[in-house]
Specification:
The protein is mainly alpha-helical. The protein has helices spanning 5-17, 23-44, 48-59, 79-109, 111-116, 118-144, 151-174, 185-223, and strands at 65-68, 72-78. The chain is elongated and about 80 Å long.
Length: 224
């Protein structure tokens, strides 16, 4: 027994009210709930009005608002969405940290050259950071102006804000002339490590940006 368009709309409206607003995952959840409702209607020979509340009650704990230290406790969303975002972010975070360590290790191999040209290197890094920040900021604004939300857009925005704050602090030290004030070399490599993380995150931001607008386009096509 297939649900009709009006019944699907009712489920969609309820999910929206419960905070399931990321369209790339909302329709997946909606499909699971609709399938369970259809099965319950057939097995128990009941109508939609009875089956939907029973299935929704089963799903209710997954819609409890939760937060995570990864994104900050200020941001709360249904647990089912949060867990998906955490899984996506953890995989990427491990790759980013590994790549940043590899890049920093490369600088360590040329430590004597780097130490003699640290100011020049930081000047180039400042230009690269400024370009990456400008492009990321444009993407951030475009995603914020999107009519619909996706988990990719959420990760993009979280990443942009966090990385911009951290990298801005590193840029302050880079342009403060600390290398001539007797700071240990380890401090220089810590800054390089932090900036490496930022640039690698910027690459992932591009992936998230494209995925966000791909999902918007795909949903418009499905709804047409």
């Amino acid at each position: 027994m297939k649900l009709d368009t009006n019944q699907i709309h009712i489920i969609d409206t309820v999910l929206e009210k419960l905070g399931v607003t990321y369209i790339d995952y909302k329709y997946e959840i909606l499909d699971h709930i609709a399938t369970e409702i259809e099965e319950k209607m057939i097995i128990h020979n009941i109508g939609f009005e009875e089956a939907f509340p029973a299935v929704l009650k089963k799903w209710q704990p997954k819609f409890k608002k939760s937060s995570s230290v990864l994104f900050g406790f200020f941001w709360k969303m249904p647990e089912v969405l949060l867990n998906k975002c955490i899984r996506m972010y953890r995989k990427k975070l491990l790759l980013v940290l590994t790549a940043a360590m590899v890049l920093t290790s490369g600088f360590l191999l040329f430590s004597s050259f780097l130490r003699n040209h640290l100011a020049d290197f930081f000047g180039i890094a400042t230009i690269l950071y400024s370009m990456a920040f400008l492009l990321s900021a444009i993407g951030y604004v475009k995603i914020r102006l999107s009519k619909s939300k996706t988990s990719y857009g959420f990760l993009y925005k979280q990443q942009f804000i966090a990385c911009s704050l951290v990298a801005s602090q590193q840029l302050y030290y880079m342009n403060s002339g600390f290398e001539s004030k007797g700071f240990p070399s380890l401090f220089s490599y810590f800054i390089i490590f932090t900036l490496s993380i930022y640039f690698i995150f910027s690459v992932f931001n591009l992936i998230y940006y494209r995925a966000h607008f791909y999902e918007l386009k795909r949903m418009r096509f499905l709804e047409a």
